[in-house]
Specification:
alpha+beta; N Utilization Substance Protein A, Chain:P, domain 4; OB fold (Dihydrolipoamide Acetyltransferase, E2P); GMP Synthetase, Chain A, domain 3; five-stranded antiparallel sheet; four-stranded mixed sheet; 12 helices
């Protein structure tokens, strides 16, 4: 077992101080040997880059040796120390090969723990202030259904449930992910990231739009069906600033940058209104609305749209009205003019 070679490799790969690794391994090996032989005196293990590793143990000076691994005769002790007496402890080098199997197990345990500790420290250093935020990483590997993203030498886990089915996640692809959980429920610390979380979209707008970063434009809510379509409601604290124009950017460059990051996910930027009726109208865009009737108790809205706008208002597979309902937090029931008239007539 080339312990030193393994130590050097781990120190380089994980950016750990070699001296610290060596000291901790020496202490662990000494403790393991002490238990292995039942030594009462001190045990010392030294790892030397040139000589390999050596073990020395303090043996008790006795008149009659009954256990050579723990005792040394007075005659032998006097050869090493001229004033040795029975009851003294004399340091003696022992053959480390007698301890080979135990040493290998101990070294493996210590190095595994050090790697876990180092990984935990690095995760803390990289992600301590990044929880609930966006980081940029590189796809490093796939394992089963999970994708792993390397962020500053730390692998973050992108589970299947947090992946967008239409995204490729090719090896070495660079992408932004939302850090939403650091999980310590298992033996090792895991950083869980997401590409589907609505806050990913919110954070991307905060990064891309200076007016949002400065607080002039405020994101009120986000509704998202990841990989397909999203709606984001914004308003301005300065009447001179158009919040939708700020988010879209000159010639659409800001929203286009976010769309490209999200593999062409369609994004509707709508104006937030305090009045629920006005907000629902905005949220249903690009469809036009004729009238709205609210039921405050049920927090539901009965919406009538022109006959030619019904399919647009509902959207493909009901997506437009579904996102509008999420964005406004109102249940929305849509009817065309002819449908509403028919229902009204039937009710007479």
């Amino acid at each position: 077992m080339d312990i030193l070679q393994e130590l050097n490799q781990i120190a380089q790969e994980r950016d750990l101080p070699l001296a610290e690794l060596q000291r901790e391994l020496e202490e662990a090996l000494a403790a393991a040997y002490r238990r292995y032989v039942g030594a009462r005196g001190e045990v010392s293990v030294k790892l030397d880059p040139k000589k390999g590793w050596t073990v020395s143990v303090e043996k008790e000076v006795v008149g009659v040796v009954t256990d050579p691994s723990l005792q040394i005769s007075l005659a032998e002790a006097l050869k090493r120390k001229s004033d040795a007496e029975v009851g003294d402890f004399i340091e003696v080098d022992v053959d480390p090969n007698r301890f080979g199997r135990i040493a290998a197990q101990t070294a493996k345990q210590v190095l595994s723990q050090k790697l876990r500790d180092a990984e935990t420290r690095r995760i803390h250093d990289v992600f301590a202030e990044k929880l609930d935020d966006v980081v940029t990483g590189q796809v490093s590997r796939k394992d089963g259904q999970n994708v792993y993203v390397n962020v500053n030498k730390v692998e973050a886990e992108l589970p299947k449930r947090e992946q967008v089915p239409t995204e490729p996640y090719r090896l070495n692809d660079r992408l932004k992910v939302f850090v939403y959980k650091v999980d310590d429920s298992q033996r090792r610390l895991r950083v869980i990231v997401s590409r589907t979380h609505p806050k990913l979209l919110k954070r991307l707008f905060e990064i891309e739009v200076p007016e949002i970063a400065s607080g002039v434009v405020v994101i009120k809510n986000v509704a998202r069906e990841a990989g397909q379509r999203a709606k984001i409601a914004v308003y301005s604290t300065d009447e001179r600033v158009d919040p939708i124009g700020a988010c879209i950017g000159p010639r659409g460059v800001r929203v286009q940058a976010i769309t490209e990051e999200l593999y062409d996910e369609k994004i509707d930027v709508v104006l937030y209104k305090e009045d629920p009726k006005e907000f629902i109208i905005e949220a249903l865009s690009p469809a036009k609305v004729n009238s709205i009737r609210l039921n405050e108790n049920e927090k539901s809205a009965y919406v009538i749209v022109p006959d030619g706008q019904l399919s647009l208002a509902i959207g493909k597979g009901g997506q437009n009205v579904r996102l509008a309902a999420k964005l406004t937090e109102w249940k929305i029931d849509i009817r065309s003019e002819s449908q509403a008239a028919s229902e009204k007539g039937g009710a007479r």
